[in-house]
Amino acid sequence: MDLKGQVAIVTGGSRGIGKGCTMALAEAGADVVIAYRKDEDAAHKTEAEVSAMGRRCLTFKADVTNQEQVKALVDKTIETFGRIDILVNNAGGPSTGRWLVHTEPTELLYQINTHIMGPFFFTKAVLPTMRQQKSGNIIFISSVETKMFPAGHIPYAVGKAGVEAMARCLALEERDYGIRANVVAPGVIETDMSRRVAKALKGTSNVIELFDKWPLGRPGKPSDIANLIVFLVSDKASYISGQVIFVDGGGAPLWELSES
Length: 260
Ligand code: NDP
Fold this sequence. Notes:
Elements: E1 7-11, H1 16-27, E2 31-36, H2 40-52, E3 57-61, H3 67-81, E4 86-89, H4 105-133, E5 136-141, H5 145-148, H6 154-174, E6 179-186, H7 192-202, H8 222-233, E7 244-247
Parallel strand pairs: 1-2, 1-4, 2-3, 4-5, 5-6, 6-7
Helix pairs in contact: 1-8, 3-4, 4-6
This protein binds NADPH dihydro-nicotinamide-adenine-dinucleotide phosphate (NDP).
């Protein structure tokens, strides 16, 4: 896959799955803009790793839920690189596992803001440039939860189902402009997010302890997600748009079903 000369924005591109995407896109030849929210050290560390590969990298503090900050990042990207070819809407936050009966409206709003409004603001901001170029690729990160809809995950699953709907409509709206939109839905991937969940549920940040039996015998890795994304944004996938592709090793392990 050759992405030389292309410019990618990865939201939450500093850590976890987003970092995996940043590194894989850079390895394929793209220059990368990392949007981060607060972990400046992680952003700069990833920036240094990308620069060491000979690619250009820009880090920019932008909360995806803040439309002004999103617009500022996109303006800076165009000012610096002159184009935008790839957007990976990856930034996200975990589920608390509470059942609806114990869920406060603020938790649902947090998930909607992060997983729906964030991708909406970013996508809206890059579309004029992509339309002008008559090309572009937009990836949305969903979750295996839209296959399982597990108890205790309503706010998170609502956010991820919403972003899948957005991507599928968008693929139709933008196809005459040469812009493709696809969704990648990960199973449980070993990152800070899943380590936090393991800590909360099992008292250890070793993700392997979350379940007795893992699909394909192991948790997923950020590179499992990033490899698919590099393929989807490449010309090899030029007839694929509006799809939701699960990368879950054949099905996620079952989540706890007891009420919390
Ligand atoms: P991590 O917690 O490891 O990393 C989250 C990243 O998102 C960080 O770079 C963080 O930046 C950034 N971020 C979070 N909120 C915002 C915000 N409001 N604005 C800008 N950046 C933000 O998460 P993962 O890598 O595990 O998850 C990435 C995506 O994958 C999420 O959308 C998640 O829902 C999804 N996913 C993850 C799964 C898993 O098992 N890990 C499974 C299925 C889906 P900073 O450090 O600066 O705060």
